[in-house]
Design goal:
22 helices
Length: about 475
């Protein structure tokens, strides 16, 4: 007998799965000539999945006997995931059209990855968590090695697959330990079992689960895959990896720690503090010597994950709301930065990734140079740009939870990290001009860059709305 209430709550994933299967057939029979229409249909599927979230509002709850949960927290995360996935699809054709085959399966893989992410953020059981994570990962491995003729892309896919498989094994072992010592795979059951104190077996399971999830968010010391994958993957794929899967993994991390391990707060708080500080300082220091813009953005993502974890370490509703607000602002800053990177092309239209090639951009492409500067200043946390507010929220939540020392170290790490962002701005505005880029290309890319820069500059006008929505999402979780 069909459980219609459960089917309604899982409507976003059903829409994405059905759309992915249909578009897979279209791509199979239409070939690469159907790539553009498949791409736009995939965007329409993502919009449709987002619209189904409106129908769930006010009617959420547990589905399929507690395996899946539809609430404001998952809806907040899915909106960010769907938006960034759609944007990663619409900017891809121009990148692949320059001396590369435009492949129709690219948007289909994105849809399947996003369906997995939806399961991740809505999971209320370790089994659902693992299925969603693997669905996302399997599609991501293929996306990382999408440009088969490029050795760097093939290497990125292989490294991602090998290290991702190791992390999945660690996570699965942790889940088996938790099941063995708590007698349950549901978040609620695990939390109840930990209420009476943490046994050694439960502690080991907790550590292994957090280690497996730390790989997915690329937190130090489980970050080793990130620079190589970001550099080797096609730039639209890198933009996708830096946003949608990052939001899904951090949201999953938050839900697991708060819901499944909330009663063992003192145990996992120490782990989170270590991951946060290690990611902040390593991401800040390791990026200083980078010459490739995509590798620099990889270390930037590691650094930003550390700041998001500062809010989680607080373990309060304000801390969770700060993490969600941070993710929303981070997505805008990162997507805007990658739109600028996509416009780094030589005279023949081939992508350029060398930071030194940005020299003199302020003279040849004033609008692009200004947008680059806005995104870099915001990532550095320079007021009054929106990125400053993101960091202020997580530090304020940490201080409010009695973690003033953590906030102080985080601020120090932010100052160190500002160096490599400012280095890019210095290259753009003060270095001797390098060979100019190709003429202005896609109006779509230019428009997205302009919109992103405007949001970063005028973002404080959105604070009341963002604060209200993130607080509601955090309240649903806690």
């Amino acid at each position: 007998m069909l459980d219609m209430a459960s089917l309604l709550m899982t409507a976003p994933e059903l829409v994405l799965t059905a759309s992915g299967l249909v578009l897979l057939m279209v791509a199979a029979f239409g070939g690469d000539a159907s790539a553009r229409i498949v791409g736009w249909l995939a965007v329409a599927a993502l919009v449709s999945a987002g619209l189904t979230l409106c129908g769930i509002a006010g009617h959420g709850g547990d589905a399929f006997d507690g395996l899946y949960r539809a609430d404001a927290f998952s809806s907040f995360s899915k909106v960010l995931i769907y938006a960034t996935a759609a944007l990663s699809i619409v900017v891809a054709p121009r990148f692949f059209a320059t001396g590369r085959a435009v492949r129709a399966e690219y948007p289909v893989l994105i849809l399947f990855a996003v369906a997995g992410m939806g399961l991740m953020v809505s999971a209320s059981d370790m089994l659902t968590l693992y299925i969603g994570l693997e669905l996302n990962s399997l599609a991501s491995y293929v996306l990382a090695s999408f440009m088969r003729q490029d050795g760097r892309s093939a290497e990125a896919g292989l490294k991602y697959f090998v290290l991702g498989s190791l992390a999945s094994g660690i996570l699965l072992y942790g889940i088996s330990l938790l099941y063995g010592f708590t007698g349950s795979t549901s978040y609620a059951g695990i939390a109840t079992a930990m209420t009476d104190g943490l046994s050694n077996g439960e502690l080991f399971g907790l550590v292994f689960v957090l280690a497996g999830l730390a790989f997915k968010i690329s937190a130090v010391p489980f970050h080793m895959w990130t620079p190589d994958v970001y550099e080797g993957a096609p730039t639209p794929v890198t933009a996708f990896f830096a946003t949608a899967p990052k939001v899904a993994a951090v949201a999953l991390f938050v839900r697991v720690t708060i819901e499944a391990m909330g009663s063992a707060f003192t145990a996992w708080q120490q782990i989170i503090i270590f991951l946060a500080l290690a990611s902040i300082f390593f991401g800040a220091v390791a990026a200083i010597g980078q010459t490739n813009i995509k590798r620099l953005m990889a270390y930037s993502s590691i650094n930003n994950v550390g700041f998001a974890l500062v809010g989680l370490a607080a373990g309060t509703p304000e801390g969770v709301a700060a993490v969600l607000s941070y993710l929303a602002i981070y997505v805008v800053m990162t997507m805007g930065s990658f739109y600028c990177i996509l416009q780094m092309r030589d005279a023949d239209g081939n992508p350029v990734e060398d930071i030194a090639s940005l020299a003199g951009l302020s003279q040849s492409r004033k609008g692009l140079a200004a947008a680059f500067a806005i995104f870099m200043f915001s990532l550095a946390g320079i007021p009054p740009l929106f990125g400053f507010w993101a960091k202020f929220l997580v530090f304020d939540a940490a201080v409010g939870a009695g973690l003033a020392g953590l906030a102080a170290f985080g601020i120090a790490g932010s100052v160190i990290g500002a160096f490599y962002y400012l280095k890019i701005i210095k290259t753009i505005y003060f270095d001797e001009p390098a060979e100019g880029y190709a003429p202005v290309g896609s109006p779509l890319e230019n428009g997205l860059v302009a919109v992103g820069a405007a949001v970063i500059v005028l973002g404080y006008l959105l604070n009341p709305f963002l604060g209200k929505v993130s607080a509601a999402a955090a309240a649903a979780l806690l």
